[in-house]
Design brief:
Elements: E1 5-6, H1 15-56, E2 63-67, E3 70-74, H2 76-119, E4 123-124
Antiparallel strand pairs: 1-4, 2-3
Helix pairs in contact: 1-2
Length: 130
């Protein structure tokens, strides 16, 4: 968790600077959400990789797929195609998410550089240790 604090060392915080501090704080909250989303998507990708191994191990036996509350019978080829499609979708989602995270981190780095240059040790934009 990251916090933004400005200490009282006769620091004059202008409106434009306060807006930058607020923007940094909002971006930091968004980044935290996106990192959680990334973790969940990685878990979904891992589960799909496990499913791929399970499909390969069926050796031609029929498979059952949960779709909502219904179980559907599939053969190995159908299951493999379905799993590949889901895997591709999740990888694309992960790529988009990582790009968004990189953009956010870049903007935050610029704001952090500006704010530390302006306020020095009077401002804290670093991670809190629980």
């Amino acid at each position: 968790k990251m916090s933004v604090t400005v200490t009282k060392k006769d620091v004059n915080v202008e409106r434009a600077d306060q807006m930058k501090i607020n923007q940094f704080s909002r971006l930091n909250m968004k980044l935290t959400e996106l990192l959680e989303d990334k973790k969940k998507k990685q878990e979904e990708l891992d589960a799909l990789e496990d499913a791929e191994l399970a499909i390969e191990e069926t050796m031609g036996e029929g498979l059952k797929l949960f779709m909502g509350e219904v179980m559907v019978d599939l053969d190995e080829e159908q299951a493999a195609k379905y799993q590949e499609r889901l895997m591709e979708e999740k990888k694309n989602e992960m790529d988009e998410l990582e790009e968004t995270i990189e953009d956010l981190e870049s903007t935050m780095k610029e704001l952090k550089t500006y704010l530390y240059a302006k306020f020095g040790s009077a401002i804290n934009l670093d991670q809190d240790n629980p």
